[in-house]
Amino acid sequence: QLRFVESGGGLVQPGESLSVSCVASGSTADYYAIGWVRQVPGKEREGVSCISIRDGTAYYIESVKGRFTISRDNATNTVYLQMNGLKPEDPAVYYCNEGAYWGQGTQVTVSS
């Protein structure tokens, strides 16, 4: 079983940056990749990025390529999502995810 705790969300202006973190605990030796998924109320969840825990291979959806960077620190079981150049379409609750396991999410708000 895995547990995730996200942190780092907040309110920023368009164009600014924000970093969110996800600390994993539990059966951390059993997972292969961790993803960040975001959800806006009333809309379906959208996978944003994921990273291989083994070799750091990263994947991004097209709309965040060049702006978001996912990374991991295996020593602390932490996955980060650095978000630069935030746009009005980026606000959402950002969740850490691996298979059936989800964190509680952290709110990212972009507003001028």
Task: Please tell me about this protein's structure.
The protein is mostly beta strands and 112 residues long. Helices cover 0% and strands 54% of the residues.
Q: Spans with pLDDT under 50 lasting ≥5 residues? A: none
* N-to-C SSE string, H for helix and E for strand: EEEEEEEEEEE
Beta-strand segment tally: 11
Instruction: Estimate the global geometry from the Cα principal axes.
Output: globular
What tags apply to this protein structure?
112 residues; mainly beta; seven-stranded mixed β-sheet; four-stranded antiparallel β-sheet
Write the layout of secondary structure elements.
Blueprint: E1 2-7, E2 10-12, E3 18-26, E4 33-39, E5 46-52, E6 58-60, E7 68-73, E8 78-83, E9 92-98, E10 101-102, E11 106-110
Parallel strand pairs: 2-11
Antiparallel strand pairs: 1-3, 3-8, 4-5, 4-9, 5-6, 7-8, 9-10, 9-11
Structure, briefly:
This protein is mainly beta and 112 residues long.
